[in-house]
Specification:
single chain, mainly alpha, 81% helix, 0% strand
Length: 192
């Protein structure tokens, strides 16, 4: 039977990975802040995440990413880069918090649980932004960008403070997002 610390680390990793699906750098900034504050223990080899230079890099990247999503049409172009980046970030952030496992098990869990979760959430947000662009010509994309930013910040905070609760919400919200994005493109095409 897995111990509580292991379960919490998996939940933390999956929660942070989900946040990577909304914004790539917000959860990396969050885990760096939490590590600097001593709230989170990082896995072996990931101590660099909890350093001031890493924090400064994540802060700069977060600001640039947030700003770019508020520029019309660049937001859609950014999604083509953000999708693989979200999967990679979800994998890395999950691996960084899973401790006391062999590297093979750590990275296998990180790729499947972390990368998969980030990819699923990112795919849903790409579809949602695409539907918004099709139906409004991109004029409502700032609302999508704001919702994604809020979701990323809230998910990051919940993952760090209440990891088990966060994972439950991630599964519920992910399912709702998938159902919504499956209906939205069809509804937009039917309206034309």
């Amino acid at each position: 039977m897995p111990d509580l610390e292991f379960v919490l680390s998996i939940c933390l990793g999956v929660g942070l990975a989900a946040a990577c699906g909304f914004r790539v750098f917000v959860p990396l900034l969050g885990i760096s802040s939490a590590a600097l504050a001593g709230h989170v223990d990082l896995a072996s080899g990931f101590d660099w995440v909890g350093t001031w230079p890493a924090f400064a890099c994540f802060l700069t990247a977060t600001i640039l990413e947030i700003a770019a999503y508020y520029v019309p049409w660049i937001d859609n172009a950014l999604d083509s880069i953000a999708t693989p980046a979200a999967v990679i970030a979800g994998t890395v952030v999950t691996a960084s918090v899973i401790t006391d496992l062999s590297p093979l098990t750590q990275w296998t869990l990180a790729v499947i649980a972390g990368g998969g979760t980030a990819g699923l959430i990112q795919s849903g947000t790409v579809a949602l932004r695409g539907a918004s662009t099709l139906s409004t010509g991109g004029t409502a994309n700032f609302l999508v960008a704001t919702a994604e930013l809020i979701a990323s910040i809230c998910t990051t905070l919940l993952a760090i403070l209440l990891p088990v609760f966060c994972v439950g919400l991630v599964f519920v919200a992910g399912g709702l997002l998938l159902m919504r994005t499956r209906r939205t493109p069809a509804a937009a095409l039917a309206a034309k």
